[in-house]
């Protein structure tokens, strides 16, 4: 075992506390005031001053009547000590504390077409106002979110998050419920919509993986009913466009009553679709965002996530 003399001076380069104490002593020119500034005792600050005197081989502060005055060496060190402390503060400040106006670069987001269409205008508006050096790139859902986030091909995924890696961080943004969207004048807009009438209609399904069945089919099967899906499309926007021009029924996730409209609700309204409540209990759809943990404390990414939250609050609950 090696014994170390506790009184042995420590290399000042390795002791940031000495730089902070030196800055306080030179700024206050008083042991008592410097101690109060650093929330320590005058006795402890007096010992630190003695240590600084030994290390720098200069008295630094000397008595002049009832006050203390700096030596020429202390005066020469004052600005440098203050600058070192400012740099230490910047180095140890959490990365989330940034000025968005200083950001430069491109964020890549992955989102379903209709979510991207609803998100892009508001997000671009915030970027112009707060982070004019930021550009936005939206990618369609042609990548698996988890690996793409892990590999750095996308910075943020927004939408229905259901295929992430275990380490991926996910935040829920809105809960939507399923409705049936049809063109104006569709037979289902007349009379009461029953499970049997809904099952008997022609349907367009939305699935990136080309699946013909989903939660609606399971709910209908519990009643001994099944529906006929005549076409499967990879996006809600394409399915809603088809429903607006044919007798096909399209499922659309919308906001709960009384909440701000969801991106899909606004798209359905733009296309002139009639949205009908489904007389079945279907699981809700959660709209969220996902990112890789390496971005969790990054200031630029923190701004992006907050901007997405603020934007979607205007169009979703």
Report on the architecture of this protein.
The protein is of the alpha/beta class and 317 residues long. The chain has 3 domains: 12-91, Winged helix-like DNA-binding domain superfamily/Winged helix DNA-binding domain (Arc Repressor Mutant, subunit A, Orthogonal Bundle), CATH 1.10.10; 101-173 and 287-313, 3-Layer(aba) Sandwich (D-Maltodextrin-Binding Protein, domain 2); 176-283, D-Maltodextrin-Binding Protein, domain 2 (3-Layer(aba) Sandwich), CATH 3.40.190. Helix content is 40%, strand content 21%. The protein has 11 helices and 11 strands. Strands 3, 4, 5, 6, 7, 8, 9, 10 and 11 form a 9-stranded mixed β-sheet that branches. A two-stranded antiparallel ribbon has the order 1-2. β3, α5 and β4 (134-139) form a beta-alpha-beta unit. The radius of gyration is 32 Å and the shape is rod-shaped. The relative contact order is 0.14.
What is the secondary structure topology, with strand pairs?
Elements: H1 16-28, H2 31-37, H3 42-56, E1 61-64, E2 67-70, H4 72-91, E3 105-111, H5 113-130, E4 134-139, H6 145-151, E5 156-159, E6 169-182, H7 195-200, E7 202-206, H8 215-221, E8 228-233, H9 236-245, E9 249-254, H10 263-270, E10 274-277, E11 285-291, H11 299-313
Parallel strand pairs: 3-4, 3-5, 7-8, 7-9
Antiparallel strand pairs: 1-2, 5-11, 6-9, 6-10, 6-11
Helix pairs in contact: 1-2, 1-3, 1-4, 2-3, 5-10, 5-11
Brief overview, please?
The chain has eleven helices and eleven strands. By secondary structure, it is α/β, with parallel strands linked by helices.
